[in-house]
Amino acid sequence: MIADDRESMRSALRSLLVLRPGWVVCGEAETAKEAITKATELRPDLIVLDYKLQTSDGIAAADGILQAMPTVPIVMFTLYKTDELELEANRIGIRCVVGKEDGIESLLCAIDSELNSRVNLGKFGFPHRG
Fold first, then answer.
1. Burial class (CB within 10 angstroms; exposed 0-12, middle 13-18, buried 19+) of 84
2. What is the pLDDT of residues 98-129, one digit of tens each?
3. What tens digit of pLDDT does each residue of 34-85 get?
4. Spatial distance between the Cα atoms of 106 and 46, rounded to a whole number of angstroms
5. S-S: 66 plus which of 23, 49, 74, 93, CB 3.0-4.6 Å?
6. If residue 47 lies in a helix (H) or strand (E), which one and from where to where?
7. pTM to 2 decimals?
8. Cα torsion 11, 39, 77, 59: sign
9. How far is Cα 2 from Cα 29, in angstroms, rounded to an integer?
C-alpha cells in the first residue's frame, strides 16, 4: 500500500513497484485517516508511507496503523528525513526511513529488506510496542 499526499508520487511509485515480480499495490491513501482506514481494511504486507500527508503526518498515520496492525512493516519514504524524524519513527515502530533524495533503488532495497525480515521472522518476529 502507498500513502503519499501527492497523486503524482503515488502514481510514480505504483508504476515502479508493480514492475517487481509478485508485488501488487493493493491501495493508496493521501491522508493519515485514509491510510489508517485502508491499511486496516486491506491488510497489506507492507506500507510505503510519506511523512507529509494532508491534514496530518506519517508519524500519526503509522501510530494508528501500528496500533491496529502491530506487525505490518512500514517504510517511510520522505523528503524530510532527519535524525530526529528517524528516531521518532523508530520509537513508534517504523524500522526504516528512506529519504526521497536517496532514490528509488534505496526504497526498493528497504522494501526487499522489510519483506524478507517478515518472511524470515514470521508475524511474531517484530518487536512489540509497549
1. exposed
2. 999 999 999 999 999 999 987 665 444 444 34
3. 999 999 999 999 999 999 998 899 999 999 999 999 999 999 999 999 999 9
4. 16
5. 93
6. strand 47-49
7. 0.89
8. positive
9. 6
